[in-house]
Amino acid sequence: MITKYLGRFGYANAKVQTIPDANDETKEVALTISVSPGKRVYVRRIKFVGNFGTSDEVLRRELRQFEGSTLSNNLLEMSKTLIQRLKYIESVDFSTVELPGEDDQVDVVFKVKEQASGAFQAGISYGDYTGLAFNTSIQQENFLGTGNSIGIGLNTWKAQQTISLNYTDNYFTDDGVALGGQIAYSNYDASKVNLVTYSRKTVSIGPTLSWPVMENNRVSVGVAFKDIEISSLQPYDQIKRFAEAFIDPSNPDAKYDFESVEANIGWSRNTLNRGVFPSDGSSQYYGFKVSVPGSDVEYFKFNFDSKFYFPLSNDHKWTLLTRFEANYGNGYGTLNGSDQMLPFWENMQQRSNDLRGFESNTIGPRGIQREAQSLVGFA
Length: 379
Description:
The structure is a single chain. The protein has 379 residues and is mainly β. It has helices spanning 2-7, 56-60, 73-84, 240-246; strands spanning 15-23, 28-36, 42-49, 89-98, 105-114, 118-127, 131-140, 149-156, 160-169, 178-189, 199-214, 217-231, 256-270, 281-291, 299-311, 319-331, 334-335, 338-339. The chain folds into two domains: 2-114, Roll (Ubiquitin-like (UB roll)); 118-346, membrane protein fhac: a member of the omp85/tpsb transporter family (Porin), CATH 2.40.160. The strands form four sheets. The protein has an eleven-stranded antiparallel sheet with strand order 6-7-8-9-10-11-12-13-14-15-16, with no helix packed on it.
């Protein structure tokens, strides 16, 4: 423990010796601990091996141990963890190399093992819930070895057709500020997935900026410009208030456009041991988004997602995952003298694989549609 503690401050060759002095009469032993810290050791050079598809700069910017500074076992372990969290790195190890004729300088060698940084998916499938589905996507987490990510996706199934393009520069500035953006289009028919009958076309575009605030924490802010077209809306009781504010009852087949600007802010914490298939650590995300005043619909949403990974064996081949998720949303402000409400297409919904034995969107209240009836009686 003492040598490990001294190693944090550059004393890599510290020697600790325990000298016992036994007293036979009192049956006690006095321990004298002799500590010889030796010279402070400095790092001359840091090298990387095994990074055939990733530039040195991408790995070097994750380092917390620097060249020319004192050698610290804490900073080396932290650097190893940060590099290993990159989605295109499978494993990391490091070693120190003593220099001939120098007792206070070493080189540090990081040996990395890369894994596939890109994913190409294309497929055709059929299921009771999705029907006939086609999907194609390309996601590259280490574009041209720069550490930046880019992706494009095309997906179509019985209820939805989407196309999206995203790009993120993970080190837009040298101090770790990331800048990204996404543009997407989707066409959604809710009647085919056990929801209120309506169709929705959405076009969205927006940038996102994030930066580190502590070693394992990041804050993100973003803006999204959305244009949403709603059509074929059936007058269910659950959306009556919303329909009365926006929908023309004399023309239920009309199309309605909603333009909004969404501002979002998020905070994430990550102590996972790996970026892909983690086996130890945790991750938490708090998010808040709000449509800015002046948007056609004014609302806000909170969400929280937490995951904990507990290794059940020393080799981390068996891991227990626990997860907690919570969401809340509502409208704010007034429209035509009535309180705004959360748009029905922003409602939280059960995903298709959340609860075994139930189809997606079948848990919860059913849609109620009232029909006018006439009563005939005799006085």
